[in-house]
Specification:
This protein has one helix and nine strands. The protein is mainly beta. It has a single domain, classed as Immunoglobulin-like (Sandwich), CATH 2.60.40. The strands form two sheets. It has a five-stranded mixed beta sheet with strand order 1-2-7-6-5. A four-stranded antiparallel beta sheet has the order 3-4-9-8, with no helix packed on it.
Length: about 130
């Protein structure tokens, strides 16, 4: 199940930056965990505030876009390592996920997405009757 979500995201280095539309876009690091009831996706989005985060689910595609504002405005630096740019990542979501029940929370720069499984794919116990 989890491999279906991440099969096209198998990259060795996912924090690389790409220039897009005149700005830098970063691909955030992602962890995905599977339970009996859901997939849980964790994304590192340092510097992103809840109002600057867009999460869209449409046509079985989950799209994450977090905007990061410059921390010190136009200040000049002698040395700078903190990258400024947006975070962007997309995932193909299979039919086993109930798109209407996806929920998200952002805490301390970590986005947690809950992707509940449909009832049809959840494991269930079969009772055995004795005759």
């Amino acid at each position: 199940m989890a491999t279906e979500l991440a099969k096209h995201e198998q990259k060795e280095e996912v924090t690389s930056a790409e220039p897009t539309h005149g700005q830098v876009t970063f691909s955030p690091r992602i962890d995905i965990r599977e339970t009996e009831d859901e997939l849980i996706l964790y994304a590192d989005l340092p510097g992103v505030l809840p109002d600057d985060l867009d999460i869209h689910f449409e046509n079985r595609e989950l799209r994450l876009h977090g905007r990061v504002k410059p921390r010190q405005g136009d200040a000049e630096f002698l040395y700078r390592e903190y990258g400024i740019g947006d975070y962007f990542r997309t995932f193909a979501i299979g039919e086993a996920i109930d798109g209407d029940k996806i929920s998200a929370e952002l805490r301390n720069g970590v986005l947690t997405l809950h992707l509940p499984k449909t009832e049809a794919v959840k494991p269930r116990r079969i009772n055995v009757n004795s005759k």
